[in-house]
Amino acid sequence: MDNITALGGDVYEIDTKMAGYRGITAGYLILGDRPCLVETGTSTSAPVVRDALASLGVGPDDLATVVVTHIHLDHAGGVGDIAEFFPSAQIVVHEKGARHLADPSRLMASARMVWGDKLDTLFGELSPTEAERIVALGDTGAIDLGNGRTLSSHYSPGHAKHHVGLVDSATGDLYVGDAAGVYLPETGDLRPATPPPDFDLDTALNSIALFEALGPQRLLFSHYGPVDAVQETLERSAEELRVWVDLTRQAHSEGMDLDHAVAMVRDRTKERYSPPKSEDDGGVREQFELLSGAPSNVAGILHWLNRASPQKPG
């Protein structure tokens, strides 16, 4: 299938074809003795992911585990559907996200407030998962991949309070979710992902420092793909966070509203990123902008600043 890439070590990247686009959200299959899917993608992507697993020889009763880095709908929106397709699989998530997978009503209501009519085309509906199939992780945990291989989880909030990073003991791969930002493979650009309501700068920087301390061999971004330059990329991730926060803090101290703050931050950061190389790239970038764009990032940083210093003087 044209949406599967072998990454070595029995790891396969699956393009979930989110909203019909290529190269936006990746799921990863670790095809060991106990096959494990990392990230499901959206609900509307679930049949794409199921078919990819089938083509790799993973049938309805073969998938042992589904683990999501966090419960945002581009990563975990398909959990309920995938759980139905693969009835033997355990569903693994941080304890702060577990209840939302069992009862997604509050999560879906808040997502609809943010996305409105775009919700159905972008994400679809997160279906509930039976509570007894959900394994809730604490600050650390281990997922058995079989034959002595494990996927260890490490609590890494900052982007979201229910976020974990995952390290494969066999490959040294670190599944970073959104905690290290959004990576654009066409250009090697990396941008932060700081949406409301959970973003917190110090927490996010601590999570990146934790990722560095884990000493991974490779970073696997949910958006999008594998990166070998681990140290350099994590340093860039921290730098991008600081740049976006500094600019948004300046806009905040000058009393700008969200629209003006977004325009200023966009203008001051545009030199940091390569222009699109082609119309096709432009389409991909447009979708990245929708998922983790300046309005969402600046809104998340302003939300944090207002919590930290509601009456910040100019």
Q: Briefly, what is this?
A:
This protein has helices spanning about 45-55, 75, 80-85, 95-100, 105-115, 120, 200-215, 230-255, 260-270, 280-290, 295-310, and strands spanning about 5-10, 10-15, 25-30, 35-40, 65, 90-95, 135, 140-145, 150-155, 165-170, 175, 180-185, 190, 220, 225.
What does this molecule look like?
It is a single chain. The chain has 314 residues and is of the alpha/beta class. It has a single domain (4-232), classed as 4-Layer Sandwich (Metallo-beta-lactamase, Chain A). Helix content is 39%, strand content 21%. It has a seven-stranded mixed beta sheet. Strands 8-9-10-11-14-15 form a six-stranded mixed beta sheet, covered by helices on one side. Strands 12-13 form a two-stranded antiparallel ribbon. Helix 8 (230-253) packs across helix 9 (258-269) and helix 8 packs across helix 11. The model has no long low-confidence stretch (mean pLDDT 93). It holds the Pfam family Lactamase_B. InterPro entries: Metallo-B-lactamas, NDM-1-like, RibonucZ/Hydroxyglut_hydro, ST1585_MBL-fold.
